[in-house]
Known about the structure:
The protein has 388 residues and is of the alpha/beta class. The chain has helices at 44-47, 53-65, 68-71, 101-110, 136-146, 158-161, 167-181, 219-226, 256-268, 284-291, 293-299, 346-349; strands at residues 39-42, 75-77, 83-86, 92-94, 114-119, 150-154, 186-190, 208-210, 241-243, 273-275, 308-313, 316-322, 328-334, 340-345, 354-359, 364-370, 372-377, 382-387. 26% of the residues lie in helices and 23% in strands.
Amino acid sequence: MRTAAIGLLGRCCLVVIVGVGMSALGRAQGNGIAHTPPMGWNSWNHFACKVTENDVRAAADAIASNGMKDAGYVYVNIDDCWQGKRDEKGIIHPNSKFGDMKALADYVHGKGLKLGIYSSPGPKTCAGYEGTYRHEEQDAETYAAWGIDYLKYDWCSASQVYKLSEEPAVYKKMHEALVKTGRPIVYSLCQYGMDRVWAWGASVGGNLWRTTGDISDDYDRMAFIGFGQDGLERFAGPGHWNDPDMLEVGNGHMKPNEYRTHMSLWCLLAAPLLSGNDLSKMTPETLAILTNPEVIAVDQDPAGIQGRRVAEEGPLEVWMKPLSDGSKAVGLFNRGESTMPVTAYFQDIGVGENATVRDLWARKDLGTFRGTFTAQVPVRGVVLVKIK
Ligand code: GLA
């Protein structure tokens, strides 16, 4: 079951994926990093423009001490609103909410983590701060001198100075500037999935590219984005990932069940896992959703194959991601409004007649099943299993 028409760009327009030409799968990636989907934290979903250096330090402290680092979270990413003014030489400086960026990077590195930053190819960022337009090499050098390890490059006001057709060249220019610094910097393209970025994102040096407009802490928005990713799997692979946007887990407007659906879907999609909550104040339940090792192993599987929908019946969906050990991660989703049984047919997911099933959230073997596996799935919930 792989229909081709999917609405992906909630915020601006409906994209219809027609014949998919060039495949990014297997294409050697320029900078040799992000072999598995990047994991970390980003300031935007919770702090938005209020983010301060202290929030970033607190996030690093939390990751290093609460089990997230052991679970694989590495990048501590500052999103929009850190920028101050350029000096007379054109060098960008942070605003008054941030101090010495090199000292901040040293602090984050001292915890065994990496620091990320954000800019726009346009004159202004989406929140109206200073962008990188006409300062590409200079900003790349500044970031490298600070010790930055990740750049999210957000189109925003670039639409005022470039034509849409110039996008690949504009993104390539910054990729080349980053490469020239000699520092490995994960390159995250953010242009909301315009112009089928998945077909060219890897060729301009992107390690990941947003496939949609912005997520919000809302079940319908999360589900619209997550379940809308089917069909893009051929474009993802080690070093170059589709990015359905950052996690909202723990931000408070979804139920634990819905956050487990969010996390399961993102892991089946081999999506970057950038937590977007206040890590200094999370509940044990939120931390457990973010750090279940068996669920994260699905996302971080070294084969780097993005999962896809294999069956759909009304509000019930089955998604499957092939894993490097030959087993399959399978999500049984119930998008309906009452608990319902969801069945995975072994034929659909490509396993033999008899297979063992392990529940990944419960971390429990469920036994051997013949031909099918059925689970009662709660409202807007998921049962995530490994079938072998
Ligand atoms: C855009 C991006 C978001 C965030 C904001 C910051 O909306 O898609 O992820 O970076 O800009 O202004």
